[in-house]
Amino acid sequence: MSKPRYYFPGSSRKADLDFAHLGFDYRPCPYRFEAVYRDGFWRVRGLLESTDIQISEGSQCLHYGQQLFEGMKVHGGPDGRVYSFRPAENARRMNEGAHYLCGPEVPEELFIRGIEEVVAANHPYIPPYGSGAALYVRPLYLGIGDNIGVKPARSFVFRIFVSPVGPYFKGGFGPDQGKQFLVSRLDRAAPMGSGHVKAGGNYACSFSPGREAKDHGFAEALYLDPREHRYIEEIGAANFLGFTKSALVTPDSASVLRSITRISLLEIAKKSFGWATEERKIALEELDEMASAACCGTAAVICWINRIVDGDREWTFPFDDRWQKLHDTLVGIQNGSLDDPFGWRHEIPLE
Ligand code: PLP
Ligand code: COI
Hints:
CATH architecture of the largest domain: 2-Layer Sandwich
Number of helices: 6
Bound molecules: pyridoxal-5'-phosphate, 2-OXO-4-methylpentanoic acid
Number of strands: 17
CATH topology of the largest domain: D-amino Acid Aminotransferase, Chain A, domain 1
Largest sheet: 8 strands, antiparallel
């Protein structure tokens, strides 16, 4: 059976949205992709119209947090083409999480097929090049079934939905858009726990530290390592980066999510700009010596930091043009306006 066509060549029809002024909000698009795992096989349900997921009240994802998610962005290019960014890395990270949570892998082929189908089906919602917005892609992995015991599910839902989004931190990136962060006394993950896994439970644990930071006028919480509370861990849903006198540094920690944005920025720093990079423990006191700081992630892209507060101590940082260079190179590779010497862009076939 041939695939239904959701995209018509030559069609540049766009949804009636103010793409340049979107926030980071859920905006349901017409189609979502779904596959269900049962009896040892993934069965593709294809593109669905309902935003609802019907699952048993006994499902492990509801009781015991057997759940994973991913976050990716798709950009419209200057040539009208559409690109995702390193989707195989997201598939790999989801499957490392699936192992950790004792569930089946989602084959990379299925993961990427799902992204291609759901993006093509919702093409009028892909923000146009130059709008500053992107189509956010949210893969979900849910353990389901009729169950009450504390044990892994035997059936799973893999769903991908999309939503056009603007900047995660209000104002986006720019020399006047430095943000402030509050060092949290709470941990988002345990030393030998699930911090490196993109499981929903880690995010429920970040609500309270995040709320404390926001109630005090900060953009987010900055976490220290959960064992000694000495080293910088990460910031909300973003990894930490800083420029010392000699290198671009980022924390090396088993309880931090391996950010695909961060590993890409380190590659760009090394290979495109010839800057030294280091992945190592970074004590909070090292902020005394740091020239500038930032955090990064798919949603956050790069956000430079102008102030970090820890009780009665604080550090302030200026804008650094090197964040601009990293930002422009990353986004240029993602949206197709720059060459991609790394082979990171994955074009979404629309026809
Ligand atoms: N750290 C956490 C806890 C996150 O949720 C995210 C977002 O995915 C990141 C870091 C950034 O990771 P990535 O660059 O892969 O989006
Ligand atoms: C992302 O950066 O894609 C994330 O998943 C962060 C957040 C929206 C949870």
